[in-house]
Specification:
heterodimer, A: 241 residues, six-stranded mixed sheet, 9 helices, 25% strand, B: 233 residues, mainly alpha, MetI-like fold
């Protein structure tokens, strides 16, 4: 579904990503871990081209996203993204936030979008917030709305950029539970997170990065229990404390 | 004391009543308002265009030439006196064209205002968190849709009061139009004074009229600001 080859990203002269290679297959749930500043978020943002890679290729459903002829907005419909800071549209209510993109892009009619949005809000226990504005919601509620906003697009894959890092501890679980529910429905996803227990719970594959490079890729059991790389061992020890 | 009163009575009479001179004030007021109003409308149209071109360039590194033109326009307008711009437009650009001088004023002040308005709108757009745009893009929306449905509705809260202030500035600035012979308020008082050889009364009168307009508008802008603060987002 997604093949990343020789991906490099420089900010000015500063190399943030150095030769990143990996593949994502349908149904994979990939977690990217690593110390702060290792390039995890940049990598994620490169995948839907919120950051423009300096070199390499990103092949999504057989299309190289770095081709000039690619209609980026059409591709992005299929790659959902959930942000650390939620980024709900402040001028719109919960319902409007959810239905804006699918209706304005002409994917579904407004009445169908409203129906679908209400269904999702009911399913995830947010129905009573339908007409509230983002500033009236808790962090956990905002993030759950943000996730529903990507779900209604019916994406092939969702990118989670530290979805619980900006949340108060007591709200982390409600968001993780929601992501878990989506994971159980076999959604393909890439998650950048510091919540190791959560990653162990949902990931099918874990990527460990340091200094813009992938140091180790493996299934969660190998990465967390039998890490090979010294730096990974150190990182795992630190996060277990 | 009674001498003093009779002087006031006389100067009032000769400045305003005699020969229907108050009509100059009315004409001047009408022209001042007309120029300011249409110039600010033109300024807003130009300003939005320039702001969007520059913002689009900042985000996508496209429209390089248009961006260069826009940037130069803003720099030139903001870097030269408005009276000079007015003279260039009247004496150079419209030199050989028979054209209503009010129209020249509207064009000149509109072009001038556009540069300032574009900066107001740009600042308004830049005040909106970048994450709002990114979230829009990540859902597949295009630049125009992101602007229209997400960024501008939020930016307008910061833009509107500043636009009100720009209108107030412009209202006062139109007095420069007297220089090329537009009969706006200042010129009107000048005409009256040139008949009576008494500057005191005509100048005080238009000063009061300017003040009433600007203070009134300032009140409105403040009211608008408070209204916008109560918006639900």
């Amino acid at each position: 579904m997604l093949i990343i080859k020789g991906l490099k990203k420089k900010f000015n002269k500063n190399s943030v990503l150095k030769n990143i290679n990996f593949e994502v297959n349908k149904g994979d749930r990939i977690a990217i871990i690593g110390p702060s500043g290792c390039g995890k978020s940049t990598l994620l943002r490169c995948i839907n081209l919120l950051e423009k890679p300096s070199e390499g290729s990103i092949i999504f459903n057989n299309t190289n996203l770095l081709d000039k002829s690619v209609e980026l907005n059409v591709i992005r419909e299929k790659i959902g993204m959930v942000f650390q800071q939620f980024n709900l549209f402040n001028n719109l209510t919960v319902l409007e936030n959810i239905i804006l993109a699918p209706t304005k892009l002409g994917l579904i009619s407004k009445s169908d979008a409203v129906k679908e949005a209400k269904k999702l809000l009911k399913q995830f226990d947010l129905y009573d917030k339908l007409n509230n504005y983002p500033r009236e919601l808790s962090g956990g509620q905002k993030q759950r709305v943000a996730i529903i906003r990507t779900l209604i697009m019916n994406p092939d894959m969702i990118l989670f950029d530290e979805p619980t890092s900006a949340l108060d501890p007591e709200m982390v679980l409600e968001v993780e539970d929601l992501i878990k529910t989506i994971a159980d429905e076999n959604m393909t996803m890439i998650v950048v997170s510091h919540e190791m227990n959560f990653i162990k719970n949902i990931a099918t594959k874990v990527i460990f990065m340091i200094d813009g490079e992938i140091v180790e890729i493996g299934d969660p059991d190998t990465i967390f229990n039998k890490p090979k790389d010294e730096r990974l061992k150190k990182f795992i020890n630190l996060t277990n404390k | 004391m009674s001498e003093y009163f009779s002087w006031i009575k006389d100067t009032f009479y000769y400045s305003l009543i005699y020969d229907d001179r108050y009509k100059y004030i009315f004409i001047g007021l009408k022209n001042t308002i007309l120029i300011a109003l249409f110039a600010v409308i033109l300024g807003v149209v130009i300003g939005i265009l320039v702001a969007l071109i520059r913002n689009y360039y900042d985000n996508n590194k496209k429209l390089i030439i248009l961006n260069f033109i826009s940037k130069s326009y803003v720099n030139i307008i903001r870097g030269t006196p408005v009276i000079l711009q007015l003279m260039i437009i009247y004496y150079v650009i419209f030199k050989s064209v028979d054209i209503n001088i009010l129209f020249v004023g509207i064009i000149a002040f509109g072009i001038n205002s556009g540069a300032y308005v574009s900066e107001i709108i740009r600042a308004g757009i830049n005040s909106i968190d970048k994450g709002q745009m990114e979230a829009g893009y990540s859902l597949g929306l295009k630049y125009g849709q992101v602007m229209r449905f997400i960024v501008l509705p939020q930016a307008i809260r910061n833009i509107l009061p500043a636009l009100g202030n720009e209108f107030i500035t412009l209202l006062k600035e139109t007095s420069v139009g007297a220089y090329i012979g537009i009969i706006e308020l200042t010129k009107a008082s000048d005409i009256i004074a040139s008949r009576t050889y008494d500057y005191f009364f005509p100048l005080i009168i238009i000063a009061i009229i300017y003040l009433i307009m600007t203070l009134g508008l300032t009140k409105l802008v403040n009211l608008l600001e408070r209204k916008l603060d109560n918006v639900n987002y």
